[in-house]
């Protein structure tokens, strides 16, 4: 599944992505953008990041934009709410990076038909598979 998500996904919404190059989420989004993925920053500040328009929430992203993967770059206690938003928005998958774990929310996502990757780094997984 990880190989498929990295190879076939086109649009990643990064929840928690602000214009701060020192943050891990910024680095991950930049790396995927450099590999041809469209990134959509999702942050309450709504400031453009990496040349892309930002949205305050997943719900504010236009309905005609298909979200293949939602990167959940929030601490574990807040991940469940983001995953519920991803389910409601009709995303194809949720990706929780290293040390972000919410088993109950992951089960809800799986039950709703989303793919779930948890406690994994997209850059590390990309390097392993390419």
Trace the largest sheet across and list its strands.
Answer: 2-1-3-4-5
Corresponding CATH superfamily: NAD(P)-binding Rossmann-like Domain
Characterize the biggest β-sheet. Answer: 5 strands, parallel
Number of strands: 5
- SS-derived structural category: alpha/beta
Report mean pLDDT, rounded to a whole number. 96
Helix content range of the residues, please?
Answer: 25-40%
Individual helix count? 5
The CATH architecture can be named as 3-Layer(aba) Sandwich
Unreliably modeled segments: none
Please give the domain count: 1
Rg, rounded, reads: 13 Å
CATH class: Alpha Beta
InterPro entries: CoA-bd, NAD(P)-bd_dom_sf
Protein name: CoA-binding domain-containing protein
Describe this structure in words.
Residues 5-100 form the CoA-binding domain. InterPro entries: CoA-bd, NAD(P)-bd_dom_sf. This is CoA-binding domain-containing protein. There is one protein chain. By secondary structure, the chain is an alpha/beta fold. It has a single domain (2-129), classed as NAD(P)-binding Rossmann-like Domain (Rossmann fold, 3-Layer(aba) Sandwich), CATH 3.40.50. It is 38% helix and 17% strand. It is built from five helices and five strands; from the N terminus they run αβαββαβαβα. It has helices at 2-8, 24-34, 76-89, 103-111, 122-129; strands at 11-15, 38-42, 69-72, 93-96, 115-118. The protein has a five-stranded parallel β-sheet with strand order 2-1-3-4-5, sandwiched between helices. The protein starts with a helix and ends with a helix. The mean pLDDT is 96.
């Amino acid at each position: 599944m990880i190989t498929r998500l990295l190879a076939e996904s086109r649009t990643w919404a990064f929840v928690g992505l602000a214009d701060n190059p020192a943050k891990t989420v910024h680095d991950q989004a930049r790396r995927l953008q450099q590999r041809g993925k469209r990134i959509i920053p999702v942050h309450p500040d709504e400031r453009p990041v990496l040349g892309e328009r930002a949205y305050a929430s997943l719900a504010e992203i236009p309905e005609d934009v298909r979200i293949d993967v939602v990167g959940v770059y929030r601490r574990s206690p807040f991940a469940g709410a983001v995953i519920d938003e991803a389910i409601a928005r009709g995303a194809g998958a949720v990706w929780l990076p290293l040390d972000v774990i919410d088993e109950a929310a992951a089960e809800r996502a799986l039950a709703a038909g989303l793919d779930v990757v948890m406690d994994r780094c997209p850059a590390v997984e990309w390097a392993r598979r390419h």
